[in-house]
Write a structure and sequence with these properties.
three-stranded antiparallel beta sheet; 0% helix; mainly beta; binds zinc ion
């Protein structure tokens, strides 16, 4: 059994994906860098994830010493 990943929209085999940097938004506020993967044939987005390369940005002001 072999794994043949297919685009759910156009049915092409998904040997390549376009990787795009996008921003995760929570309630209108930008929260995290994300990566979007889309089919190179029809541009259907097949997946989005938090960018693992992004640096954590500590935003907890309460924890920061003044
Ligand atoms: Zn496609």
């Amino acid at each position: 059994m072999s794994i043949l990943g297919q685009c759910p929209k156009c049915g092409h085999r998904l040997l390549h994906v376009n990787v795009e940097q996008v921003v995760g938004v929570v309630e209108g506020e930008s929260k995290a860098r994300c990566l979007s993967y889309s089919c190179i044939h029809c541009n259907a987005v097949v997946g989005v994830q938090i960018d693992p390369r992004s640096k954590p940005r500590p935003r907890r002001r309460a924890d920061q010493p003044a």
